[in-house]
């Protein structure tokens, strides 16, 4: 919205020339998100307490968590609001990728909201059935992938896969033979559909699994979103993309503003979610953030860097997969409890120490992801 002030007023008031620069609008969106989150946080916490929207704690987890029962949850509503509003204020709303990423983020937030609502309604921590939740996530991801294919037909996107460390390795995620026949054309994109669905569903649930300690998930999101902000800006910058041998995607540059808003919103939420937490994000926040992170990664063609950009989320998800797989196959557990942050809790680590160390690991992963730009 403010972006259009540049066209109306830059000749009369020269300061509005700043609005043409993505770097300025990204910083402005980040600060807007931060201040909006800090401003609305106390009001939302008060309202959630008034309506008794409290967290239910499972009994089989670490006993120290029982004291957190009743802490206001569904704080993800604040996170999503403080991402969307600054993006709408500072981004070019004529850019289709802005609306695409906003749409996916809101869709995953809606799934999480429904899940949180079911927990409150039934007064337990079960929420939606796993099958229903996965079906909705797959549906949203499929619609997103179809839209990307339609954009590919218009020359706005490419279904080719970009490999870190390999400049010339860019295989197409389509079946070329099927694309030669009109009636089988949609089937040609099945590998691309499957790949995108896997990334979005996996990422959203990985952030959800990480959200088990005060400030753990949101701190990792700040680091991940910061790395994505850099990657998005580079992908949309002609000179930097050419220098680093990246696919130049000029229209995705506006997503830098969305990423900046995600950083600011997460910082503001961390103010209230830091140990000991005054509010939890709930599934409405974790699913939305996971969906947003993976959606941006897919759009800017950094899909294979996603496990490094969000390394802690990947480790948390893998710990659950290994634990469940080991128990079903061998009737033995690898960890004392999964996700892995609970394992460290049960071995005697303090919650605050686990959080700080996981943030350090997340930063190492993110820095490694950024170094791959030059290593190409």
Structure, explained:
- This protein is mainly alpha-helical and 376 residues long.
- The chain is 65% helix and 0% strand.
- The mean pLDDT is 88.
Defining key terms:
15 helices, globular, single chain, 376 residues, mainly alpha
How many separate helices? 15
Structural class: mainly alpha
Label the overall shape.
globular
Strand content: under 5%
Euclidean distance between termini CA atoms: 37 Å
- Poorly predicted ranges: none
Number of extended strands: 0
What's the alpha carbon Rg, rounded to whole Å?
21 Å
Average the pLDDT over all residues and give the rounded result.
88
Series of H and E elements: HHHHHHHHHHHHHHH
Q: Biggest sheet, open or closed, and with what strands and sense? A: none
Chart the SSEs and their pairings.
Elements: H1 5-9, H2 22-50, H3 76-90, H4 96-122, H5 130-153, H6 176-179, H7 190-210, H8 216-236, H9 238-243, H10 255-273, H11 282-299, H12 306-309, H13 311-330, H14 340-346, H15 351-375
Brief account:
By secondary structure, this protein is mainly alpha-helical. It has helices at residues 5-9, 22-50, 76-90, 96-122, 130-153, 176-179, 190-210, 216-236, 238-243, 255-273, 282-299, 306-309, 311-330, 340-346, 351-375.
């Amino acid at each position: 919205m403010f972006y259009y002030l540049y066209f109306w007023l830059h000749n009369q008031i020269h300061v509005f020339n700043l609005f043409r620069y993505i770097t300025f609008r990204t910083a402005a969106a980040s600060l807007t998100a931060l201040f909006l989150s800090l401003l609305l946080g106390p009001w939302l916490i008060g309202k959630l307490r008034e309506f008794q929207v409290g967290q239910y704690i499972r009994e089989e987890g670490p006993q120290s968590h029982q004291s957190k029962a009743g802490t206001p949850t569904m704080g993800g509503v604040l996170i999503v609001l403080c991402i969307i509003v600054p993006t709408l204020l500072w981004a070019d709303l004529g850019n289709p990728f802005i609306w695409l990423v906003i749409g996916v983020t809101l869709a995953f937030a809606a799934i999480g909201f429904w899940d949180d609502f079911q927990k409150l309604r039934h007064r337990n921590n079960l929420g939606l059935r796993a099958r229903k939740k996965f079906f909705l996530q797959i549906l949203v991801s499929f619609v997103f992938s179809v839209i990307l294919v339609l954009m590919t037909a218009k020359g706005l996107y490419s279904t080719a896969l970009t490999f870190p460390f390999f400049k010339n390795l860019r295989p197409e995620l389509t079946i070329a033979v099927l694309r030669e026949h009109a009636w089988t054309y949609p089937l040609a994109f099945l590998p691309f559909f499957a790949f995108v669905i896997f990334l979005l569903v996996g990422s959203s649930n990985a952030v959800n699994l990480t959200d088990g300690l005060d400030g753990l998930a949101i701190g990792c999101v700040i680091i991940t979103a910061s790395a994505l902000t850099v990657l998005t800006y580079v992908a949309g910058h002609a000179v930097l993309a050419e220098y680093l041998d990246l696919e130049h995607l000029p229209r995705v540059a506006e997503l830098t503003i969305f990423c900046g808003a995600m950083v600011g919103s997460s910082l503001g939420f961390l103010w209230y979610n830091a140990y000991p937490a005054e509010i939890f994000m709930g599934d409405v926040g974790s699913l939305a953030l996971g969906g947003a992170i993976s959606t941006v990664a897919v759009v800017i063609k950094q899909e294979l860097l996603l496990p490094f950009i969000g390394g802690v989320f990947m480790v948390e998800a893998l710990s659950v997969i290994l634990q469940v797989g080991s128990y079903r196959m061998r009737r033995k557990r690898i960890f004392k409890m999964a996700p892995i942050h609970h394992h460290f809790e049960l071995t005697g680590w303090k919650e605050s120490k686990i959080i700080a160390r996981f943030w350090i690991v997340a930063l190492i992963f993110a820095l490694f992801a950024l170094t791959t730009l030059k290593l190409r």
